[in-house]
Amino acid sequence: QAKRTGKNKFMLFDERIHDVFSKKTQLSNELRSAIEKHQLRLQYQPIFNLSDLSCEKVEALLRWHHPALGQISPETFIKVAEENGFIIDLGEWVFEQILRDFAEIRQQFGAVEICINISPLQFSQPAPIHQFIAQLATLGITGTHFCFEITEGLLLEPSSQVIDILNILHAQGIKLAIDDFGTGYSSLAYLNKFKIDYVKIDKSFINGITENLNDQALCKTIIFMGNQLHIKLIAEGVETQDQETLLKEMGCQYSQGFYRARPASLTG
Ligand code: C2E
Ligand code: MG
Ligand code: MG
Ligand code: MG
């Protein structure tokens, strides 16, 4: 009896692994055709300057509408795309779509700057980044209208290729933001080695900021550090007026989150 239960359990477990695995390969294959099938689109989420509540920037956020599964979270499909290498093509599509949307973004949101999430892998196959810069020149748009959001990991032990690209971006006036700050590594040395314009405080720290004294202390410390280093702070995941008021009091310059605005498609 016990033996049979054991075996059943094992089979169940095994089937579940198989299930997860085949779902992933399926997604991986379908993602490759998502571009041609027009299943991808971008939404834009406003980022407000806390000094005057103007929408100074928007963050471009990728959306995939799967015909059978519906909306799939980018947390899921970006990971898949990084594993199968398709992130390079996705990244290229994002650059192109943002340039197509550029005039309308500025009209609809009044924003002067567009923040683009860049996977570390895009720095090892940088042709689309170079194409994007060439396109800007062709269109007569200056790099100062863009900010690349990267994660801490990229700057820990950067290759000479990564450093070359960062220098090119800087020369173009393209700004640099550290996304999800505080969730990755504890090293801070990179903050002084590179010209970093913004640090985005991860929403996991903002969540409890009005109740949890430890989250409060962490946010305060990150904001103090940024201000000392002349790096501006963007709080992500701000969901209430109280959170925003507290962040402003602490010296945070920008607010992004559902309290003020959710990611939205262009209406035009
Ligand atoms: P992220 O760059 O940290 O983006 C912020 C995420 O927080 C977005 O999730 C946004 O919708 C969500 N968010 C904004 N305000 C609030 C709030 O008040 N409360 C809560 N709970 N969430 C809020 P989203 O759109 O699901 O994107 C998830 C992640 O996927 C992004 O995190 C980013 O790492 C990645 N991603 C999205 N688009 C792209 C892209 O074009 N390229 C790359 N490489 N990654 C992308
Ligand atoms: Mg981001
Ligand atoms: Mg983030
Ligand atoms: Mg995040």
TrEMBL record:
Signal peptide: none annotated. Residues 24-268 form the EAL domain. GO terms for molecular function: cyclic-guanylate-specific phosphodiesterase activity. This is EAL domain-containing protein.
